[in-house]
Amino acid sequence: MTTIATTFSRQIGSPRTAYQICSRKTYLKRFRYFIEHSDWDERIIALEERANKICVGVIMTAVLSFVPVLVKVFLR
């Protein structure tokens, strides 16, 4: 089991320093709770149109960067 102690560096050594020890199961439970009880999927669907435009832009940039290479290859 992996444990992680979290604190701020300015609090190290002070008598009131509190350490939070978390196991992997705790992280998995928190992640599962987030997936089940948040609206992350609705947020992604709402941003789908913007993401599609970004993807098309990336594809067009890649195509335009390869055009000179392809022209040289086909003209040989």
Question: Could you characterize what this model shows?
Answer:
The protein has two domains: 1-38, no CATH class; 46-76. The protein is elongated and about 75 Å long. The protein starts with a strand and ends with a helix. The protein is built from three helices and two strands, in the order E-E-H-H-H. The protein has a two-stranded antiparallel sheet with strand order 1-2. It is 64% helix and 8% strand. With 76 residues, the chain is mostly helical. It has helices spanning 24-37, 40-46, 48-75, and strands spanning 4-6, 20-22.
* Count of strand segments: 2
Mean pLDDT figure: 81
The order of strands across the largest sheet is 1-2
Quaternary status: single chain
Secondary structure tally, helices: 3
The succession of helices and strands, N to C, reads EEHHH
Query: How many structural domains are formed by the residues?
Result: 2
